Amino acid sequence: MFDAPEYSGEHQLFTDGTVSLPFVGSLRLQGLTLTQAETLIANRLSRILRRPFTTIRLLEARPISLAVTGEVYSPGAYTFSLEETNGVPTVTKAIQLAQGIRLTADIRNIQIQRRNPLTNQVDERFEVDLWALLSEGDLSQDVILEDGDSIVIPQATNLNYEEVNVLAYANISPEQMTVNVVGEVEAPGAVQVKPNTPLHQALLAAGGFTNRARKKEVILIRLNPDGTVTQREIDVDFAQAIDSEGNPPLRPFDTIVVGRSNFAKVTDALDRALSSVARVIGVLSIFGL
User: Distance between CA atoms of 97 and 85, rounded to whole angstroms?
Assistant: First the structure.
């Protein structure tokens, strides 16, 4: 406040969007720009001062709290500063904070729930179509969020693998995921791959088959979101494009089991048998038999 130090000072904006000023009382500034807030305060002060001149400067932005639930890798509540989102908290930035979106998400029907700061009850719901953002560049779908918002991301009922492939390489998806390739491959163990990587690519990332591998089929073991485990045998044809049956896109922590060929099983059995015979002969020779 120019030339009126008793009316000036630093004041905190409360979570309900109000500020308490001396000689003025409580004012609601939520949703106002700095210029609009200056005008409101000046109008209120004009009741006790002649032609008040006010200026407002934001010293530090209050952290924002959001909830992200549903098809993200780390759902939960998040509190962050505006610096972490480059000054603008949006839906896509909230999803990135939650470690990225799952490929099973229905990104066409994301729901934003907005609470009334006075009652703390949800009084506004609206939907966001992030597919329109990814496919058409519709930036209006990347809605600016407010303190207390909840983002609900449902699971897709039907997956379109072309759309899933686009989603896998979007900046709202994690950069990498872990799958396991065990058995008869050159480098068995955990493999880091891109989201939506097809099964064939994961096999090659693990070094490919050994000469002992059963190369016609592999077993895919998957832990489902509901806690169940599925296991199915998949025929391997490296000429097969990405497909839900013959070359499915993988999900985090999928396990691919590569078995031994029949020839390898027979040779392993012979080796065990011969080893047993050799041990018996060795024992007999000790006793001079």
Answer: 9
